[in-house]
Every structure is written in structure tokens, then in C-alpha cells.
Design brief:
This is Major facilitator superfamily (MFS) profile domain-containing protein. By secondary structure, this protein is mainly alpha-helical. It contains 20 helices and no strands. It has 2 domains: 190 residues, MFS general substrate transporter like domains (Growth Hormone, Chain: A); 195 residues, Growth Hormone, Chain: A, CATH 1.20.1250.20. The longest helix is centred in the middle third of the chain and has 29 residues.
């Protein structure tokens, strides 16, 4: 199928309470001005189809790619358990944990470059290189025996993920307008589902086959799932002349984007911590072993629902409103359920699911909010910068939380307070322009209502 082109009317006028008609036109919630048009954008493009077979195949192909990428990343706990008992039994838990941190950090930090390439050239070579490299990385992992080999192989997998992550979170904007967040939710729901299924698959494979054969089977499964993306996953905008590198600084001069980028990155500082430490959260309170075994599964189940549901709600009530609501709820869930010690079983289960539900919506909603303050031809680059900064911080946050947990004797109390405060601060920073706009209008109305002396 031939690729169609799309309108570059980026982000039009912005109102405090956008109407349905404004949403269809791509209105945002944060600015009275449209982002300046880029000189490299074509003068006239057809509007996104906002549905149809071709558009939904793009979404499905993208979801399958992220499903396979995050399948390995979110099941690292299962791999870590195997490494500690076999190939890397002479290494500390902290040493092995660095493998996962580096893998995830590289994937996010490379998003600025891949997002820029996506804006200029589309998805074709990014997808083909990224999926091929991820397949090769899994083959390499299957034959690893030494620590440095595992580090290099997982680093290679993270680089492969960097090729596709930013384009995957930006591509929905090429095909959808009024249902953009819903489409994004479908894409990212696959990452949560992968976090539920892949640990179970790996555990079953390790019980029946050798490590080498198990990883080769996973590589084969991933290859089959990623193959459709070579045909289905494509951008709509035509190629353009690469903008100068100095253009990377321009978005940071726009208060809505600058606040969103800084706030979203601060949220990511500790966003992964409960995912990594969920088993410790349950075991510290001496819960039954089955709850420790399935702690990550409970979080990922909630995350799957949150990513899909957050997108649907954002299309009805606005991406910024839902970003603020779910972000605040994420911090509240940590304060309410993760600070308590010892944690009763019902409270622990609710805490795991509620954090997954509220934090899962974050990825969908920050992408939707970014799309409202970004010209479409720059969406990949702008979204990539958010992920890159957040990815760098996400390497540091869990390490700090781990030290807090260790100093607290295995309890999550201090780490929960630390994580909740950084997430809450990030959400308020990201929404600062919106909050100030509301405050000005409320104060303006009060001044108008005051009688003259």
C-alpha cells in the first residue's frame, strides 16, 4: 500500500476547555499559539484517516514490536534469578542488576536520535535494523557465559530497542487525531501484556530446556512476532531535508514543552522502582511465597489495563487532564499502600495492582500530551528527547531506592516516600503552565466580581 501524507497544522489554538471540534482539529490545552511551522514541512498534506484497516495495522505492527522488546526487558527478574543460580553465581545481585539498568537506559537515551531519524526518513530502516539487532542480541545472550558477555549482549539489545521505541510512541500521531491516545494505549498495552506473559514463558522453558535452547526459542518467537512490522509499521509524512542539530534546542524555549519534558523526566526517575522491587515489597512483609512469585505479574496486569484505559479516557477528557490525574494517583498509591509496614496481604495486592494501573497510564498520557504541544513533523524528535532525559534518570532512581531499602532493613517505607515525592513533583512541574493558566483565570474572575469602592 502506498504511503499517504498528512497535514502539518501541528498544534492549533489552545483553550482551557477544548471542545470536541477543537480536539478534532488537534487543539491543545496549554498555549495560545500554534508551534511555529517548520520550513522543511510540505505545504499541504491530507488529514490523518483516524481509523481504517491500514491505520490499525500500523498500530498492531507497532504493538507487536514493543511487545517483543519489553518482553525481555520486563522479564529480566526471571533472567536475573537464573543468572544468579547458574552462569553468574559468583557475582553479586547488584552487579547483575546493572545489566538491566544499562539495557533500559540505553534504549531510552537513544530515543532522541531515532526520533529525529523517524521525522526525516520514516520507519522503514529503523524498524528493520532494530528488529534484526534485537533478534541477533537474543542469539548472543543464548551463548553467553561470562559477566562481560551478558553485559555486552544486553547492551546490544538496548541499542536495538533505541531504534524503535521513539518511533513507536510517535507513530500514532501520523494516523490518528481524535482517537490518538486510544491508539497509543493499544500500542503500549502490549508492553504490559509482555510483562505478564514473558516471565511465565521463560520459567516454563527453563524448567524443560537448557538456557541456550530456551533463549533460542524466545528468539524464534520474537522473530515471528516482529516480522509483520516490516510491512505494517510505516509513517505517513514524506521524507524531508534533515533540520540542523540546533533545532534540538528550540522546543526547550517553549514553556509547555519545557515543563512537560522536565516533569516527565522527573517522574521517570523512580517510575521503574516499584516494578523492580515488587517481589521485595511482598517478601519483606512475610507474605505467602506465591505473592512474591507473582508480584511483578500483578503490577504488569494493572499496567496493561492502565495503558489502554488511560488512552481511551484521554480522548474523552483530554490528555493533560488525565496525565495530571493519573500521575497524582500514582504518587497517592505509593503513599497509601507501599509505606505501610508490615503490609497485610490484601493491602499488598491492592498496592501492586493500583500502582500498575495508575503508573501504566503514564507512558500513554505523556506521549499524548507531548503530541498536543509538538508540530507533527517534529513529534518523533520531541518525544525522543523526553524519553532520553527520563531514561538517563531512570538508571539513577532505582539505585537510590535500593540503598534506602537496604538502610531500612529491607522495608520499602523510605523508598516509597522518596518515589512518591519525585513522581508528584514531576507531575506538577509538567502541568505548571496549565495550573498557572487556571489560577490566572480564577483570580481574574474574582477581581471582576469585586464591587468598586
Amino acid at each position: 500500500m502506498t504511503e499517504r501524507t498528512e497535514s502539518t497544522d501541528s498544534a492549533p489554538t489552545l483553550a482551557l476547555e477544548p471542545t470536541k471540534a477543537e480536539d478534532k482539529a488537534g487543539a491543545t490545552d496549554l498555549s495560545d499559539k500554534s508551534p511555529p511551522p517548520t520550513s522543511s514541512a510540505p505545504p499541504a498534506l491530507s488529514p490523518p484517516p483516524d481509523g481504517g484497516l491500514e491505520a490499525w495495522l500500523v498500530i498492531l505492527g507497532t504493538a507487536l514490536v514493543l511487545f517483543t522488546m519489553f518482553g525481555l526487558m520486563t522479564s529480566f527478574g526471571q533472567l536475573m534469578l537464573y543468572y544468579m543460580e547458574h552462569q553468574l553465581r559468583d557475582r553479586s545481585k547488584a552487579d547483575i542488576a546493572w545489566i538491566s539498568s544499562v539495557q533500559g537506559g540505553v534504549m531510552f537515551m537513544g530515543s532522541t536520535l531515532s526520533g529525529r531519524v523517524f521525522d526525516v526518513y520514516g520507519t522503514k530502516w529503523l524498524v528493520r535494523i532494530g528488529t534484526t539487532c534485537s533478534f541477533a542480541a537474543l542469539i548472543a545472550i543464548a551463548f553467553c557465559k561470562e559477566y562481560y558477555q551478558f553485559m555486552l549482549a544486553h547492551l546490544f539489545f538496548g541499542i536495538a530497542g533505541a531504534f524503535v521505541y521513539s518511533p513507536s510512541t510517535a507513530i500514532a500521531g501520523h494516523w490518528f487525531t481524535t482517537r490518538r491516545s486510544t491508539a497509543m494505549g493499544v500500542i503500549l498495552a502490549g508492553t504490559g501484556l509482555a510483562g505478564v506473559l514473558y516471565p511465565i514463558v521463560l520459567a516454563r522453558l527453563f524448567a524443560r530446556f537448557s538456557f541456550r535452547d530456551s533463549m533460542l526459542i524466545v528468539a524464534g518467537i520474537n522473530a515471528v512476532l516482529m516480522a509483520p512490522s516490516w510491512v505494517w509499521m510505516k509513517a505517513r509524512l514524506p521524507r524531508k531535508t534533515p533540520p540542523p542539530w540546533a533545532d534540538l534546542l528550540k522546543p526547550w524555549r517553549e514553556p509547555p514543552y519545557a515543563c512537560l519534558g522536565a516533569g516527565a523526566a522527573l517522574v521517570m526517575l523512580n517510575w521503574f522502582t516499584p516494578y523492580f522491587q515488587a517481589p521485595l515489597y511482598t517478601s519483606a512483609s512475610a507474605l505467602a511465597p506465591k505473592y512474591t512469585t507473582y508480584a511483578v505479574t500483578l503490577v504488569q496486569t494493572g499496567a496493561t489495563v492502565g495503558r489502554l484505559g488511560g488512552g481511551v479516557l484521554a480522548d474523552h477528557f483530554g490528555a493533560w487532564r488525565m496525565f495530571f490525574t493519573f500521575g497524582t494517583a500514582t504518587a497517592v498509591s505509593l503513599f497509601a499502600f507501599w509505606v505501610v509496614f508490615p503490609t497485610p496481604t490484601p493491602v499488598a495486592v491492592i498496592g501492586l495492582v493500583s500502582y500498575g494501573l495508575t503508573s501504566g497510564a503514564y507512558v500513554t498520557l505523556v506521549a499524548g500530551a507531548c503530541a498536543t504541544v509538538s508540530p507533527l513533523p517534529e513529534l518523533g524528535m520531541r518525544m525522543g528527547m523526553v524519553w532520553s532525559i527520563g531514561g538517563a534518570l531512570s538508571i539513577v532512581g532505582p539505585a537510590i531506592s535500593g540503598q534506602l531499602i537496604e538502610r531500612a532493613g529491607g522495608r520499602f517505607t523510605y523508598a516509597a516516600v522518596w518515589s512518591g515525592c519525585t513522581i508528584l513533583a514531576g507531575v506538577w512541574i509538567a502541568n505548571a503552565p496549565k495550573i498557572l493558566l487556571v489560577a490566572r483565570r480564577v483570580l481574574g474572575r474574582k477581581e471582576q466580581q469585586q464591587p468598586l469602592a
